[in-house]
Amino acid sequence: MKIGFDQNIYLLGFMGSGKSTMGPLLAKKLKMAFFDTDECVENKSGKSIAQIFLEEGEFSFREQERLCIDMVSHLHQFVVAIGGGAVMFADNWLNIKNSGLTVYLKCPFHAIWDRIKESKTRPLLSTNNSQQQFTKMKELLTKRLPFYERADLIFQCQEGESAIETTNRLARQLEDFI
Ligand code: S3P
């Protein structure tokens, strides 16, 4: 399938909402290329995200993330998985908005929690205290919600659907939308 859209499609949403899983599937379906901002940061720095947070701090990570977003915003026909915190920064948002269509993958809180509670790769939520982790995630999500909801398309995740089914449903909505 080809939808004849020559800009980028940006997948936004909280950690664990399926951006990096659905992104490559959607790209394949739409015959577009795939770009993941976290992967870009890791490839350019030669470090994992967790390592960057630990050794250089969040500020340095955000700067590297900003450069990757700036880079992909100059490219065309990429499906882009955007790290969950990036849309909070005005310059990232401008680059994204000016270069493509934004899609918020809106998943229920408990579904996200189930996916990320055991994750060891998400430094913003890493603590051994699961109650603290839960509270932190709630706070972050509440703060970010208005930023995610600025997206052109709000795509509702549905429980019990496979990644392929969800991707196909998103592709159909995009066809109607573009
Ligand atoms: C972050 C989300 C992560 C990664 C980093 C910070 C965030 O990406 O960029 O750990 O601030 O929400 P995913 O959303 O792909 O997990």
Explain what you see.
With 178 residues, the chain is of the alpha/beta class. Helix 2 (37-45) packs across helix 4 and helix 3 packs across helix 4 (58-73). The mean pLDDT is 93. The protein is 53% helix and 13% strand. A five-stranded parallel β-sheet has the order 2-3-1-4-5. Bound molecules: shikimate-3-phosphate. The site of shikimate-3-phosphate has 11 residues, from helix 1. Shikimate-3-phosphate (S3P) binds at residues 15, 19-20, 38, 49, 83-85, 122-124.
Strand fraction: 5-15%
SSE string: EHEHHHEHEHHEH
**Helix/strand/pairing category:** alpha/beta
Estimate the helix proportion, in percent.
Answer: 40-55%
What spatial form do the alpha-carbon principal axes imply?
Answer: globular
Distance between the termini: 14 Å
Strand order of the biggest β-sheet? 2-3-1-4-5
- Rg (CA only): 16 Å
Regions with little confidence, pLDDT below 50 for 5+ residues:
none
Please count the helical segments: 8
| Overall number of strands | 5
Heterogens: shikimate-3-phosphate
Largest sheet: 5 strands, parallel
Average per-residue pLDDT, rounded, comes to 93
